[in-house]
Specification:
Helix content: 40-55%
Number of strands: 4
Strand order of the largest sheet: 1-2
Distance between the termini: 63 Å
Radius of gyration: 20 Å
Length: about 120
């Protein structure tokens, strides 16, 4: 049985609650957002998620960031901003990293060189 707490309050409804439960409402909103922003369906997302075994395409970790209400965020849809083509699913940390470097491969290589240099200098290798 579904409890009243599983529904959002709705003043215009006769019983004071929405027709859809919270999880159905959130799934519908996710589906609409995926279609609008990435031209992909929830099924496309789920298929890509399964292909990646539920982990980030860069670091191989599952999404670990938590929402305020203890629900786990979904892996972010990564896409090429120039072509709008979906590349894969990323955790919030890796997605932010790509955003900060603006997909600049030369900058990423410079960061790697910088970290490698300082690691070698401090570790004596």
């Amino acid at each position: 049985k579904i409890a009243k707490t599983d529904f959002f309050p709705a003043k215009v409804s006769s019983d004071g609650y929405t027709v859809r439960c919270k999880s159905c409402h959130q799934a519908k909103n996710r589906d609409l957002k995926l279609k609008r922003h990435f031209n992909m369906s929830l099924e496309d997302y789920d298929s890509l998620y399964a292909q990646q075994n539920g982990v980030c395409a860069i670091c191989g970790s599952p999404e670990v960031r938590q929402a305020k209400h203890q629900e786990t965020y979904y892996l972010a849809v990564d896409h090429d901003h120039a072509t709008e083509k979906v590349r894969g699913l990323l955790c919030s940390r890796c997605n932010k990293l790509l955003g900060v470097v603006n997909d600049d491969i030369d900058l990423c290589n410079a960061v790697i060189n910088y970290l490698t240099y300082w690691k070698a200098k401090h570790n004596g290798t």
